[in-house]
Amino acid sequence: MASSYRPASSSSSRFAPPDSGLSAHPKPSSGPQASSINQYSHVFLPIPPPSQSPIPNPHFPTTPTHIHHALICFLYHPVSVCLTVCLSVCLFVYLSICLSCWLACLSIA
């Protein structure tokens, strides 16, 4: 039995070869030099000069190191330590002891 399948010839192909210029997104014809400049122009961004002023800008928020330092100072402050102890007392002991503990902490401040 002879097979009736015949491969399609390259001239009757419904797809154009990749280098024929018939792609779905044609490149602009502005020349090879202009296209290479446009292609890589986003890579070279200007770098602003560093600020020479020793005074920090007041419009910028506080850096995390300053926030962290303030948080550590607050956590080791005697009033906050007292309030933390009172909170643990409040969780495990009677409410009257809790209130007197809070009042004692507020009198320290």
Automatic annotation (TrEMBL):
Record bears the keyword Transmembrane helix: yes
Superkingdom classification of source: Eukaryota
Transmembrane segments: 74-97
Biased composition, class Low complexity, residue ranges: 1-20
Region (Disordered) residue spans: 1-36
Keywords, sorted A to Z: Membrane, Transmembrane, Transmembrane helix
Protein name: Uncharacterized protein
Organism the protein comes from: Aspergillus niger ATCC 13496
